[in-house]
Amino acid sequence: MPEFMPGLQLSEIFYQETIKPLLAANYPGLTYSAARLGWGSDVMGFDTPMSMDHGWGPKVTLFLAEDDYTDLHCQLEDFFSHHLPFEIQGFPTNFGEPYEDGGIMEVKLNYPLHHMITITTPERFFKDYLGLDIHENITTATWLTLPQQLLRTVRSGRIYFDGLGVLSDLQRTLHWYPHDLWLFLMANQWRRVDQEEPFIGRTGSVGDELGSSLIAARLVHEIMCLMFLMEKQYAPYSKWFGTAFQLLSPASKFTPIFQQILKSKGWKEREANLSQAYLALVDAHNQLNVTPIVKPDISSFHGRPFLVPHSSRFVDALLEQITDPGVIALAPHMGSIDQIVNSIDVLTDIPLLPRFRALYQQQE
Fold this sequence. Notes:
The chain is of the alpha+beta class.
């Protein structure tokens, strides 16, 4: 194998140097789009040499119009399996069977090849990947049940050619939430902080340092989730969560504070370090200019000797700015699917998502 290159770069070369000329020569009248979208560390730009051991390599999704798909998808599958070069930039275009975990590149010097050119249509891809009907408006309930991990891969994916004129518009539409839904999600992320902010001290006060540390770590995670929302960036799942956080503009300010929180030796020290994070978070919120200024206030929790930022103030301030009737009608504490579920298996079970949408549709 040659030295590593980012998967998105390899896939673009694969399209430009191989797929595009083959289609131009053999299917000159075909209207299509080509992209690298969907799951994979490479799609998010987080792949490394280790990624090459599975689910990585020259991959492209070829999008056809529905009529062309019906007539040509089997023909094109067979065509590519007999006409692709055996390698591109030194990387095999053949993937060994089975295709579990995205397949593994395998050298093969005779045809047919088991390539990773996925042939589909925009309608089929977005239905299978997000459960979306691209010909319908995205409802509030649908937005709230689109997992951020999947939205991130659509946003960060690369469109190499959009002859159908559909993918670019869809990518722009899914780039970020509508404004009032953004406010709603930030309110509910503040709510998650509010639910546990006094427990650092309460657990510590009875000698439960393990419990206090655990809650502190969870609060760090909740604050990081809030920072993704504030920066209008979809959060990936846990493997790349910290890596993606480091790309946010406030990361250099917050990361040292988070590290001090996690290294704290007692609940008093832990509380003091969390207070620094809260003050920075309040400042970040006020800089958004989406609510009237909320006063920085780290003080005791209802007279108890535990310092908190009183996060419910931010919940109320954000909800008060929402004017969309569909968002106002939602149960204010529901949040999105990412805020009520943390199982990756559930979040990637696309046929299950309509059941969650029913919960929100009852409120609309």
